[in-house]
Amino acid sequence: MGSGIFKGGLTNHRSLAENLPIVEEKWELSNGCFGKHPKGNHRLVTDIESEDPIKTANEFYDKMAFGGKTYPIFNNDGSIKGEVAYMKDGSIITIRIITKTEGKPAVDINVDGSNQKDDLDGLKSHKIHFTIKEENQND
Amino acid sequence: MIDKRLTENEVEMFKSLIGSIFENYQHDVFQFSTCVFHNVEFVVNGENYVLKNEIQRIPFFENDEDFAIFSFLKCDKEMMKSSLVGMKQTTTPIREAIKDILLVNDIINVKKNNAEFYELSYTKAVIFVFADRKICFAKTIWFDEHINIIVASDPLAKLDNPLNGFEANDDSFLVKGLRKVVSLVNI
């Protein structure tokens, strides 16, 4: 990290547009956002449910940030809080393993500074919470 | 109303800097954009200051959310560093008197079914005014701790719309954004 090697062990810096097709193989991009909108929340905050939210958050982040320049983020007590990835196009992807919001992991996508917005399939800056999939959602 | 603008003490501290020599500012090395993570440090008249953009959990529409909020404080030399391990910092010398400081405060007003529902005010940007240029430190989208550094004659024109990032999830909400610019030399 921070050594000239990019995420995934690559020696070339990648832009977010190069990674989106790989991400979209697994997660649908709908109205510019990944995940679904929880009831009563905000347009740019979504949930991705799974049985293991931390694993899923890491998997999602690893695909989004592949080939990015990454730096770890630490808490004041020295424990790891997450990681930020700077992509070649100016997009910024941040993962927080433990957030202030109910301890759910989250990935922040900020494409406002991207110089390749036209190549991002309409992707918007948004925040994704990774939550536990409820077993009986119809109950 | 939820008020997350800079506090009165922070505003007074900014106001006290007017007329002083802004020696330099320090921040993470740019990474393909002019956004830097979490904090920017200033040296004014030999004193060290830090502007932070830090996550707080606040009520947000119908839920609670992590929202990045500006804070401003005097600091020791040891605090003049990146919040990212392994990130290099760069120092930009200014050596000019501060003529004015502009605070850009955004107000997000939300109505639900035409009734007042939620209002949030927060400081979007701080602009240092010098004789021939302005340097702006602006929050990026509300959930992100990055700070966008804009050097321009009119940085206000380069800020995103106050409504950017505040889209409601359904048609029962009506969201309005208002921007107020406060000149500290005039208060």
Runs of chain A with pLDDT <50, length 5+? Answer: none
Q: What order do the SSEs of chain B take from the amino end to the carboxyl end, as H and E? A: EHEEEEEEEEEEE
The oligomeric state of the chains shown is heterodimer
Secondary structure class of chain B reads mainly beta
Number of strands of chain B: 12
Which shape of chain A, going by the Cα principal axes?
globular
Largest two-chain interface = A-B, 36 and 35 residues
Main β-sheet description of chain B: 7 strands, mixed
Q: Calculate the terminal CA-CA distance of chain A, rounded to whole Å.
A: 45 Å
Tally of DSSP helical segments of chain B = 1
Helix content of chain A: 10-25%
How far do the termini of chain B sit from each other? 23 Å
Q: How helical, in percent, are the residues of chain B?
A: under 10%
Structural class of chain A: alpha+beta
Per DSSP, what share of the residues of chain B sits in E-state strands of 2 or more residues? over 45%
Tally the structural domains of chain B: 1
Report low-confidence residues of chain B grouped into runs of 5 or more. none
The description of the largest β-sheet of chain A is:
6 strands, mixed
Strand content of chain A: 25-35%
The shape of chain B is globular
Work out the radius of gyration of chain A.
15 Å
